[in-house]
Amino acid sequence: MFPNLKIILKDLGRIFIVLGLLMLLLSIVSVIFSEFALLSAVLLTAALAFCLGFVLRYICRDARGPQLGHAMITATAAWLVVPAISSLLFIFVEEMRPLDSLFEAMSGWTGTGLTMFAHPSALTHTIQFWRSFMQWVGGIGVIVLMVTILARPGTASFFLYKAEAREEKIHPSIISTVRILWWIYLLLTGFGIALFYLAGMSLWEAINHCMTGLATGGFTITDGSIAYYSSPVVERALMPVMLLGAIPFVVHYRVLSGDLRAFLNDLQIRALFLITLSLLGLLCVENYFSLYHSFSEAIRYSAFQLVSGLTCTGFQTTDVRAWSVTALGLVSLAMVIGGAAGSTSGGVKLIRAIIVKNDISWSLARALLPRHAIKTFKFGDRFLWEEQINTIVAEANLIIILWIVFLALGVAVLAHVVPPDYTLSEIIFEVASAQGNVGLSTGIANAGLSAIGKITLILNMWIGRLEIIPVLMLFRSLFRGVEPI
User: Could you give the CA distance from residue 380 to residue 354 in angstroms, rounded to a whole number?
Assistant: First the structure.
């Protein structure tokens, strides 16, 4: 077997073992709620994951550690095969069609929140928890979980960690960093559950909605998403939890360590609140004049949907299809921007939006200066020289351009397969929601969507979660082989 392929398969084997462990945890829920008839399906899926994992580990036992190229392909493949195996549970328990079950699992693991289930409240407790649990684990990353459980020192863990679109380091050791991430995640989860319970949710609802809210996932166990509650109190409790999910874990760590100014000093957080307030003002005015004609309603529904979109959560309290083209455009823009890098959010990330904005300002200022004048580029508290600027800006622009290209491709495909009563703005909104891993929907994503439409949105969700470059690495390896990595 090719040595590079063995490196990738060995780490995929590790990931399958972790998936099997998660399935065993799910079986506890089946026992607690006396859903014993589902245990066989859960244990069968777990056994399949374990068998695949141990077989791959054994076959590839002599493989060396991965480099960054291997790690990128491993991450990309993992975000396909993990949803594929997880989808078996929906087939066994809910008798879903394979494509629908894959859509649901991909939406869950990528933290998107688009769903094939019309009535989540009718699902068993086991399936309700599995949908929420997928998003909770997927929010921080299945490979991050693997690195945490199957810890191994050295650069191999860092390459896998980085390949899952994460680069923040709290401690010099990656193993120490990911364990701190999980402690912070658990602490915030406990806080969210308590907050939602006090806001009026049942304990079961609070647990599930906190997992999907903090992971900025958006799955619910209620019909009609958060509109089910029709409660301003519940909505006001959800918004800060969604925002917490969109804030970098490094900032959470600093605040919990006593540096309360970290929230105000962080460049991405300042941008998050500035963009939120700016878009909210425009959205409230638009919705007031075009739909609600009540300031209180315009503020209430605009604020919730905007925060849900910008944080890439996808909780919904109103039918956005009734909104104007301008209102949909503003929320679409928020979904494309997304939350902060190093958080559970999707989108192109705030840091890249900041880089592009600063580059435009720097370029305009430089154009007005004498030819030989030196103009530094301020990025947060740092001043960068032209060579550094070009590298950072080129990387940000590449991701943004590729993001827009894949968005356009998704829109082009969906425009040919959705019913003709959906407008172009609604199609753009739906694809931006899928690729931004958001979950807000105009109603296009449902079990009645054509197979081509579902496959397109699955690919958009997958591409968006991995921030494109690892996906291109996988396609390159398929055409040119794994050996040249």
Answer: 10
Instruction: Classify 123 in phi/psi space as left (phi over 0), alpha (psi -120 to 50) or beta.
Output: beta
pLDDT, tens digit, 9 for 90 and up, residues 197-235: 999 999 999 999 999 999 999 999 999 999 999 999 999
Q: Report how many helices (DSSP H) and strands (DSSP E) the chain contains, helices first.
A: 20, 2
Going by their DSSP bridges, the two strands 382-384 and 377-379 should be labelled as antiparallel
Closest CA to 276 of 315, 305, 245, 233: 305
How many angstroms separate the CA atoms of 430 and 445, rounded? Answer: 8
Report the percent of the chain where pLDDT is more than 90. Answer: 60
By C-alpha distance, which of 328, 307, 326 is closest to 316? 307
| Residue 484: per-residue pLDDT | 45
Q: Are 126 and 153 in contact (CB under 8 A)?
A: no
**Rounded to the nearest 5°, which phi and psi values hold at 246?**
-90, 0
- Match 């069609």 to its residue by tokens: 97
The residue type found at 73 is: I
Contacts of residues 249-255 at CB distance under 8 Å and 24 or more positions apart, as own/partner, are 249/168, 249/170, 249/181, 249/184, 249/185, 249/342, 249/343, 250/168, 250/170, 250/342, 251/340, 252/184, 252/188, 253/170, 253/180, 253/184
Reduced to 3 DSSP states, what percent helix, strand and coil does the chain have, rounded to the nearest 5? Answer: 70, 0, 30
Written as six digits, the tokens of 258 are 């006593």
Q: What's the one-letter identity of residue 54?
A: F
| pLDDT over threshold 60, residue 154 | no
| Encoded tokens for 330 | 């503003």
User: Quick one: CA torsion of 43, 48, 50, 54, rounded to 10 degrees?
Assistant: 160
In DSSP terms, 384 is beta-bridged to 377
Q: Which helix (H) or strand (E) holds 267?
A: helix 267-287
pLDDT number for residue 430: 96
pLDDT band, very low/low/confident/very high, at 387 (cuts 50, 70, 90): low
Chain position carrying tokens 């109103």: 318
> H/E element holding 382?
strand 382-384
**Are 432 and 307 spatial neighbours (Cβ–Cβ below 8 Å)?**
no
What pLDDT score does 481 carry?
61
pLDDT over 90 (residue 178) = no
Residue type, 4: N
For residue 419 the two structure tokens come to 């019913």
Rounded CA separation 267/248 (Å): 11
Coil, strand or helix: which one is 384?
A: strand
The tokens for 129 are 């928890």
Four-residue CA torsion sign, 237, 240, 246, 247: negative
Terminal Cα distance for the chain, rounded:
15
Radius of gyration of the chain, Cα coordinates, nearest whole angstrom: 22
The two three-digit tokens of residue 98, written as one number? 């394979």
